[in-house]
Queue: 4 jobs
Job 1
Amino acid sequence: MIELRHVFKKYHTRAGDIPALVDINLQVKRGEIFGVIGKSGAGKSTLIRSVNLLERPDQGEVLIEGKNILTLSAKALCQVRHNIGMIFQHFNLLSSCHVYDNIALPLVLLNYSRKEIQKKVEPLLELTGLTQKKLAYPRQLSGGQKQRVAIARALASHPAILLCDEATSALDLHTTQSILGLLKDINQQFNLTILMITHEMEVVKAVCDRVALLSQGRILELSTMAEFFTRPKTEKAKKLIETLSHRALPEKLLKNKKEQFFEGSVPIWRIYFTGNSAQSPIITALIQRCALEINIFQANVETLKEDTLGIMDVTVKGDPKQLQLGVDYLISQGARVEVLGYV
Ligand SMILES: Nc1ncnc2c1ncn2[C@@H]1O[C@H](COP(=O)(O)OP(=O)(O)O)[C@@H](O)[C@H]1O
Ligand SMILES: [Mg+2]
């Protein structure tokens, strides 16, 4: 549906060239919600803007439904763009137009008749829960409502693809959940392909089927959500996922924690489980089979789109051989173990 092949992009600035995208390869399947996560400056906006050529790559191919759009004429490109909606962090609504006219705008530009426009806009108002607000101006709306208008506008020309650039980053937690719910709905209802970029792990966790981790213009990791948390392929990716997840240890432990083993210390493990690997039997087995003394000090279960992710922080007492046995056992059960330090 969307494919980037060996995409490179540099920005030329007075201070020198900035490599914003370096050899990006990815494929987003039809009907999929695909996330790209990374810190600020990683190249996320440049990547998503390459998909509709708001930003033109220096090298590589951008394929939409199998067609390299870099080689299209201006007119043909225009047509492809009608098939790609986009929403932004700051909504980008026209402040002088009310809700209805904001949503109608792409259709006005396409020269639809007033009647046709009405036929398309009314159901979009319904879909996004804005029927009561159709004559309100953006300044009279909450952030969540503004983003709903932007979503309705993006859907007005019936695109097959929706690009979301930090679409929930300006919203509070509750509103974020409701916008993500709406995106999931329209993904299912219209089999819409969604590419979203974000710096918030909660967002990809809630809605994405697959995710790519971007760092300094490069893809460090590209996998399903479950794999992303339990089996990142490189140390660098592991560290970055950790940072982006903001999963902190309790204050007391953090204060006393050392990076290296010291006399009389025990390791702190963070154990990730997904899917069916139920947690309590595994921990019981760990205690019994590996003769480890385990102290659980925090645990929680998070919901992924298609899966659950359990995260448990424990301290573990045992001799090195038992500890290794424990790690091996956890891995054999599909879990991942990270040593966070020693206390
Ligand atoms: N128009 C531009 N001119 C120069 N540098 C830019 C421009 N846009 C982005 N950059 C730089 O390119 C890098 C990637 O930026 P961006 O794609 O906006 O990252 P992100 O969206 O992940 O924060 C950053 O170092 C940023 O400063
Ligand atoms: Mg950005």
Job 2
Amino acid sequence: MTADYRILEPGDIPGYLRERGMFDGNPFADSDIEVHEVSDGNLNRVFIATPRDGRSLAVKQALPWVRVAGPSWPMSPTRATAEARAYRRVAAVAPETIPVVHDYDAENYALTMENLSDLRVLRTVLNEGGGFGGASTAVGIFVARLAFATSDFGMSSAERKALIAESVNPELCKITEDLILAEPYVGHEHNHWHESVADLAAAYRDDRELRTEIADLRHTFMAGAQSLVHGDLHTGSIMTGDRDGTEVVRIFDPEFSFVGPVGFDLGLYWGNVIVAETRARILDGPADHTHEIARTWQAFESEFRALWPTRLDTFFDDAYLDRFLTRVWTDALGYAGAEIIRRIVGFAHLSDLDSLPDPGPATRRALLIGRELVIHRADLPDPRAVRKLIDQY
Ligand SMILES: Nc1ncnc2c1ncn2[C@@H]1O[C@H](COP(=O)(O)OP(=O)(O)OP(=O)(O)O)[C@@H](O)[C@H]1O
Ligand SMILES: [Mg+2]
């Protein structure tokens, strides 16, 4: 397979950025611009271009295949269009939570954005024993503002139908439907696990109660078109750091974005919070990471409630808001559990657990908590109840 558009190599980046008008008015020669590749994900290429004097930029390009696999694993580059669309929507309502996007080149599936190299990926910070800082508040605000603006509360019915149509992302949704919401519960060649949880991996495959609850979450993911979601909001999709004494949090990589259930992003994030907590507890004793669930929810709920009086369709009354928020909360706990389980018995695992001297005890604990969250999500009314559940393990 070959690409029918321009695939950028490091040496092309200075000329490319110049063509895209990124250096208009600046007299650099191409040789004054240093370029290096920082791709460390699976799917795409990311380059950083730094002019000798001037603003540095990041360029992210989607290839027509999975970067780490090559042309033998084709994948539509329109994932970059989904990423650009999500950034555009968030930029209108919560610009401080994402990188500044300077350009989207739809012909070549390339985004040019703010260079975040001065920040660090949250998962790395946590693995080194650091804390969340303001990440959970940023996630709550990001999800609330994006969800409200792209739901039937923030948009007219006709605009919403157009948004749903333009935001379909079938290839990446299928990855989630398979990897998170099916494969761990059936025998699949992708699945693998640490030997200490082999018994649980087998039990979860035969667990009919768990299977039906995952089917419910899977169907909500497929058919619950509530609002535009990020779609991959784990602790590796967040960068944090300090700029001039002010804490900065940036949520990035929304290429899985589509119109889905509002609780999905909160749940994926919480699944990763709980795994980070499990790691920290094993290394240093009980950590305060569980509090991050309350922090995220508080930010989300207060932001969503503040926006509620501005809803376009006032047939949705205040009592319905309470019911809607309860549904988001319950869905989110279910997705948190599903995320934990798939990160332990599914295809893609987490460095949080894999890098422990003995991954066994933490892996087992997280896997047990994951099932509880899925099965009992409707019986856990608030963050305190979740904390109590986690502390029982
Ligand atoms: N704007 C940016 N500035 C600086 N570095 C960045 C930027 N965007 C991405 N990176 C770096 O490139 C890495 C990969 O980026 P990203 O996660 O967006 O790519 P991906 O191929 O979609 O990854 P994945 O396979 O995890 O989905 C990040 O972990 C980060 O180190
Ligand atoms: Mg990605």
Job 3
Amino acid sequence: MDTAEKKVILKVENLSLTFGKVAALSDVSLEVYDGEILSVIGPNGAGKTSLLNCLSGFYRPDRGRIAFDGQEITNMPTHKRAEAGIARTFQGIQLYLGMTALDNIMSGRHIHMRTNFIQNALYWVWSDREETDHRLVAEDIIDFLEMEAIRDRVVGSLGYGLRKRVDLGRALALEPKILIMDEPMAGMNVEEKEDMARFILDIQEAKKIPVVLVEHDMEVVTDISNRVAVLDWGFKIAEGRPEEIMRNPSVIKAYIGEE
Ligand SMILES: Nc1ncnc2c1ncn2[C@@H]1O[C@H](COP(=O)(O)OP(=O)(O)O)[C@@H](O)[C@H]1O
Ligand SMILES: [Mg+2]
């Protein structure tokens, strides 16, 4: 993809965030182009999750600005960002374990629902027109993520890889304009990783939305990313195409320093 022709959908400018004496982010600037897969990599504690948390609104930066789709969102609350089209999956999964895969995906529709989701879940009225529309979206996602076999399974009974897939389904149910994923493949076996990598590429292709991804597996990063940004000790130390990044001396040094 030629990024020169691409529209900037997310713009991070001079973001800084400290926790006590720890500088989680130091003057980080970053742009995300529409339709691209951008991986954020870096050693443990580099600030990757902190950056994603600033994007989704879980953390507020001490300094800097974030603009999404032409609108400043730096201090916008999390739910408003979700309404604006920012969806994320979590490093630790946050799902309703006692509910089915389908119901968890439905829970991702809440911003599109007039009534409160939990309230709705208690008084599940299937004849409701609105409900039916939401259900169709959820069924589409089940189909897209190949989850037919588990749609009615309680999430607590599913293995880790499938829970991650449900979490992705919940994020997609938002019909987002950007998808942010924190270590979607951590803890997965090779086959589960391949599935997840394929779904991320399918999302880019079919939904035409950019994906910002934190991932440790460099083979996966190289395979699926259009661009890679590297954080180290809160600083962005490099940014570029995957093949450039993997042979960048400061990047190699940052990773060797971790050993
Ligand atoms: N909520 C928090 N409270 C205190 N320190 C935090 C918090 N979140 C992150 N940090 C610190 O900020 C630094 C960056 O953490 P994090 O963003 O989780 O890194 P990464 O995801 O790259 O491993 C670490 O030193 C971490 O301990
Ligand atoms: Mg992290």
Job 4
Amino acid sequence: MFRVILGLFVCTSLFGNGHIRVLLAQGEVTQPIEWQFITSKKSFLCAFSEGSLFCNGKRLPKNALRISTDDNRCAYQDAAYAGDIALIIQDNHWYIINNLLLDDYVYSVLRSESWPGWPLEVNKVFAIMVRTYAVHKIMVAKNQKKRPLFDIRATNVHQTYKGVHDFEHLRQAVNDTHDIIITYNKQPIVAMYDSCCGGVIPAQLSGFDFKSNPYLARPYACIYCSECKLFNWSFTYPHDTLLNLLQKEFPDIKQIKDIRVTASDKAGKALEISVVSGKTSKVHKTITASAMYRLCKDVRSFCYTIKKEGKDFIFAGKGFGHHMGVCQWGVRTMAKKGFLCKEILDYYYPGTTLMKLVTEPHHAAA
Ligand SMILES: [Zn+2]
């Protein structure tokens, strides 16, 4: 049970019809192309050719197709999905969009974005975060002048969504938190979360618009994630390994004489990295910390330093992720210590309120 009174929030008509539209795949129409969808009763082989969409050999009147089934299941590629699946051709692109109930979506995402084996209270926290993030996306899409075809992407650009799964116990976390979302000023928050914050203080991070999202400016360090093995991390790159990586950004570099973080913010986030590559100690190249993060998969977060030792380069950093919002390893420890999900969410998103989505009452015609 929650310790606060849950306020009434937006009507479902304002954020949608209780469903979410997830983009599963998309592409450009460059040549005749085929897709296959399988339901318990039938297989649908669809093709786009010469400006028309075909299904099982029959030309369709529109360049769009929706597959819905009695058993609420449809498979595409290697996964089965709850709800309907639409194939839409528009502006020389194709889109496969899964339209499903919000809680079926939350249940699915928990499998990928949470740890199914962790305690129920942890998964309740994650269920509320995942739902809040999704509702925010639905409202952003709904408020655009021209409503986009989908609300959210299925990849980790937004939240990883892989369709139905058999971790049935996660359903309880979804049901126990049904319709509950995190709000600030009665609006769903941008529910950012990362794996392990590394004790970095989010309010000290530069380059983020905290004015619009003050609940992300947590002014104190999380003290609950030190059990995570990436709370502090370090690794060593031999000269040639790092050189190979940097050459993807700077093909003309032939050797690395030194490399170090030359600008960082108060939180310890690396902002600029300088590479000395010539015979003098003059800096020859600078690279942004985010470019380095993309180049080196071993760099796990934004707060790190680099030091030269002999011919090797040692990277040392804190946490796993972007350091903002909920720290998942911290949630785990807090739940083990007996904190309830409302208390945990208050800790990571200060100043927020839990509210409940409500269905708009049906007004009878006068
Ligand atoms: Zn943490």
